[in-house]
Amino acid sequence: MMDLFALSHTGPEDWRAQAAVFEEIFFVFLVIGTLVGVIVVAYTLYHAYKYRDTGKPDESFEPPILGELPTGDEGPKSRKLFVSFGLSAILVISLVVYSYGLLLYVEQGPTDDIGSDAEHAENMEIQVEGFQFGWNFEYPNGHVEQDTLRVPQGDDRVIRLNVTATDVWHNFGVTELRIKADSIPGQYATTWFIPEEEGTYLIECFELCGLGHSDMDGEIIVMPEDEFDEWYEGTMEDDETDDDTNDEANDGNEDDDGTDEEGDN
Ligand SMILES: [Cu+2]
Fold first, then answer.
1. Could you tell me the distance, in angstroms and rounded to a whole number, from the CA of residue 117 to the centre of ligand 1?
2. CA-CA distance, 87 to 76, in Å (whole number)?
3. Is residue 223 part of a domain?
4. Are 78 and 70 in contact (CB under 8 A)?
5. Ligand 1: distance of its center to the CA of 7 in Å?
6. Are residues 103 and 128 in the same domain?
7. Cα 163–chain centre separation
8. Which helix (H) or strand (E) holds 41?
């Protein structure tokens, strides 16, 4: 079943963002729902009019008898019932199969072999960690950034997020990208997006997690690839410098402590 649907989509030309998938599902249900609604209401009104009380007895009208079961082989009335049941069943089952297929795609993402596919080596996996009250993003090179996730623009790459939390339950969501994942200590939830368009997307926490919950915002910045590369390379140097600075600072503290101890003695 999975092959029939979105998982057979292997190339970027077949990839679709979650937003596009959900918009399509919404559109299909809206159209079918409206169509069914119009038919049902029109049919009801038509019969309300056709069988209205005219004050004269209608000889041809056969009211249903209490306890009468439709058999499907006795005249047009029962056939009508079976046709409407049949059509409803076909409609509902098709919708279930259709949306289930798309949801499998949403769960799985456009491709399984992230990172191992040479053509799309620029796919990226980010570790997301929710805490009271913010988000930490760890890049493949080990660089950690708080509250801002920078990614390179490109409609042929997938950004995969591995979401967890350090303290309490949070929920990582970006409305505009239609992505959401539980952020729970000790558990990993995954979600993904395609950074199709440059821009800034608001990250919010969707699980009431404490006093600072409403300020638990962040942003995803989709930036031009070359700018991103430049920034990303810079992060490695920054991290090295940071480490050095920390080491020096620590050395300094140790010296201070030494002096204090001497003073106490
Ligand atoms: Cu939160």
1. 34
2. 16
3. yes
4. yes
5. 32
6. no
7. 13
8. helix 18-50
Q: How far, in Å, is the centroid of ligand 1 from the Cα of 215?
A: 9
Residues 103 and 211 in one domain: no
214 Cα–ligand 1 center, Å: 8
Per-chain residues with Cβ under 5 A from ion ligand 1: 170, 205, 209, 216
**Has residue 34 been placed in a domain?**
yes
* Gap from CA of 172 to ligand 1 centroid (Å): 8
Among residues 205, 210, 198, the alpha carbon closest in space to that of 163 is found at 205
User: What is the pLDDT tens value at each position of the chain, 265 positions in all?
Assistant: 444 444 444 566 667 888 888 889 999 999 999 999 999 999 999 999 988 888 887 777 777 778 877 665 666 667 777 888 899 999 999 999 999 999 888 888 776 544 444 444 568 889 999 999 999 999 988 889 999 999 999 888 889 999 999 999 999 999 998 899 999 999 999 999 989 899 999 999 999 999 999 999 999 999 998 999 888 888 877 666 655 554 444 444 444 444 444 444 4
Ligand 1 centroid, distance to 186 Cα (angstroms): 15
Does the pTM of the predicted model rise above 0.85?
Answer: no
Residues 36 and 144 both lie in one domain: no
Domain assignment present for 251 = no
What is the tally of structural domains in the chain?
Answer: 2
Residue given tokens 């339950």 in the structure block? 169
